[in-house]
Design goal:
With about 140 residues, this protein is mainly alpha-helical. The chain has six helices and two strands. It is elongated.
């Protein structure tokens, strides 16, 4: 049976019965080892997923994503303002940029802070977005 499918929590009664015994220590060590292996598997799956996601992005999408990250690292921007800046910088239509930024937000790479539609609403990079950007940078470095 896959360790990921085993419950991570044991009952309180089981814990009280074994916590200060040799059996309890062995159980805890075994469980820690299983959780470490699960964590390694999850990390590997995340890494592979990031590479897959980058491969699925078209060239213009990769460009829009990386430039958006660079802009958002400099300052806080609304989705429209970010799309406007990128449109001028990349010489792509505003609607194409905004559509892609909205998709990236829907995928969890960016998030909106504040009420959508509000001019004071800003877009920020999520942890997943930063991880994807980091993976993309590593890929580009390896190709050079």
């Amino acid at each position: 049976m896959n360790v990921l499918l085993k419950p991570a929590i044991i009952s309180e009664l089981q814990l009280e019965r074994i916590e200060n015994t040799e059996e309890g220590i062995i159980f805890a060590q075994k469980r820690i080892f299983e959780l470490e292996n699960d964590l390694l598997l999850i990390y590997e799956l995340l890494n592979k997923s990031l590479y897959l996601f980058i491969d699925l992005m078209k060239g213009k999408q990769q460009l829009i994503f990386t430039e958006a990250i660079k802009q958002l690292d400099k300052r806080s921007l609304s989705l429209n303002k970010l799309a406007e800046i990128l449109s001028h910088k990349l010489d792509l239509t505003f609607s194409m940029i905004k559509w892609n930024l909205t998709k990236f937000r829907d995928y969890g790479l960016f998030e909106s802070n504040g009420q959508r539609g509000n001019t004071k609403s800003t877009v920020t990079i999520t942890e997943l977005g930063r991880m994807l950007y980091s993976t993309f940078a590593k890929m580009k470095t390896k190709k050079l």
